[in-house]
Amino acid sequence: MMIGLMVGGVVLPGQHSLAQTAGSSLDVPQTRLAPIGSPATPPAMPPTTGGSNFALPPSVSGPPSGSLFDPYAAAPASGYVPPISSAGGGTVYGGYGYGAAPVTGFSGPVTPAPQGGFLAPSPSVSPYSSGGFSTPPATPPPLFSNGGSFLGATSTTLPPVGFSSPSTYGAPAGYGSPTSPYPSAAPSTLYPGGFFGPTGTFAPPPVDPYGLIQKGRFRHTFINDDDSADALEINDTDIALAFMCQQFLWSTQPLFIAPSFSLHQWDGPQSSTGADLPANAYSAFLDFGWQSDPNRIFGAELGLSLGVFSEFDVLNSDSLRIRGKGLGTFRLTPASTLKLGVYYYDRVDTKLLPAGGLLWRPSPLTRADLFFPQPKFSRFVSTIGVNDIWWYVSGDYGGGSWTIERDGGGDDQVDINDIRVALGLEWGPTTRMRLGQRSAFFELGYVFNRELVYRYNPQDNLSLDDTWMVRLGIGY
């Protein structure tokens, strides 16, 4: 079979010529080797001066002259990094992109300048010993490469394709050495990192600064009786509306004012016990509440209640009562606070009670108020919609004091004292519930250590039967 040979574009005589048409696979050499010869036009190279950190050494202006391919040449030296075509059509030399089009057929090795700083591995060969460089460039490479530091490279982000002289990148905004070895503000807790490691902070969320009326409140309590002589059934209905005054006394915290009214309905005890109560009474009062910035290490919680507590047909100096509380707070950690102070009840039998304990939040899902006289432990159950549901167990010193008219005539003041333990469910928005601020609740409880105490007729004091209760509320 005769094979046509082409030498210098001429078919030897006597040989059969194969057709060469446009697009034929024989139009290009049937090999992966680059054609011998220099390109017609040298590639455009990035500028060599101007202070850009991305320019190649000044002595490099293009690919090495002469043949670009030698099938008998040795393999490139170690450390060789070939040019990489970028997505925008440019070529990346030594890790940086330029807008010039890639050079067809240029495959000579280009060895980048050392990168990575003092602690980076040193190259195995001199960066100027191979790849067409006969002498080192006139200007040495920078001491620290772009995006790096003396501890090593810190960024691999390439500058945008098409920018031949990108600006020098500096440290991120806000980064730098502190101007003072001491913090600029006092710590908000005694142990900012917690007792046993880092814990979250549980500061209350800010209140709405434009909301004068914060929320309404409703609560009803039912305490059962068993029809015995010394039993007492109670139905208490409480309503309130909370208002807010911003930045009370030039502080950063608001003052809350809540006009409140409570209706008390009583059934018992029987007259054979010597004790008696009217069918109903009321409590009408103003509640004031203020606390200092909860993010401070030291703080205070203050409360004052001023009003009238009486039967509807009786009003005297004993009907006007003042109740209150004063607590000092000390933040041990971001999740635990010590409280110590007093509660003032202004009752016949109980005027003042010490108050104190530890409010501890070991996690966002657990709250333990180890606090007398109102202890409470609560735990997250589930989330429905945007509301969290928690269960809790709590205790309280319940009851109150009112002026009344006795069955035998004459006015008196009577205390109803008891201790209540309850198991309940509470719910509200997630962010507020995890700070102990519920929207509604329902609970079942046990009421014990119950008694009636009279101011002017102590001989009629009576111990009442223990019983159970149901209580529910919105906003309390």
Low-confidence stretches: 1-29, 48-69, 85-108, 110-134, 143-185
> Gap between N and C termini, in Å?
105 Å
As laid out across the biggest beta sheet, the strand order is 8-9-10-11-12-13-14-15-16-17-18-19-20-22
Radius of gyration (CA) equals 43 Å
Order of helices and strands: EEEEEEEEEEEEEEEEEEEHEEE
Shape: globular
Query: In total, how many beta strands?
Result: 22
What is the average of the pLDDT values?
A: 73
As a percent range, the share of strand residues is 35-45%
**Number of helical regions:** 1
* Helix/sheet category: mainly beta
Major β-sheet profile: 14 strands, antiparallel, barrel
Helicity range? under 10%
Can you characterise this structure?
The longest helix is centred in the C-terminal third of the chain and has 4 residues, at 430-433. This protein has 476 residues and is an all-beta fold. It is built from 1 helix and 22 strands. It is globular, with a radius of gyration of 43 Å. It starts with 5 loop residues before the first strand and ends with a strand. The strands form 4 sheets. It has a 14-stranded antiparallel β-barrel. A 3-stranded antiparallel sheet has the order 3-4-5, with no helix packed on it.
Topology overview:
Blueprint: E1 6-7, E2 10-11, E3 84-85, E4 91-93, E5 96-98, E6 148-149, E7 152-153, E8 213-223, E9 233-245, E10 255-267, E11 280-291, E12 298-310, E13 320-333, E14 336-344, E15 352-363, E16 366-372, E17 376-384, E18 387-405, E19 411-429, H1 430-433, E20 440-454, E21 462-463, E22 467-474
Antiparallel strand pairs: 1-2, 3-4, 4-5, 6-7, 8-9, 8-22, 9-10, 10-11, 11-12, 12-13, 13-14, 14-15, 15-16, 16-17, 17-18, 18-19, 19-20, 20-21, 20-22
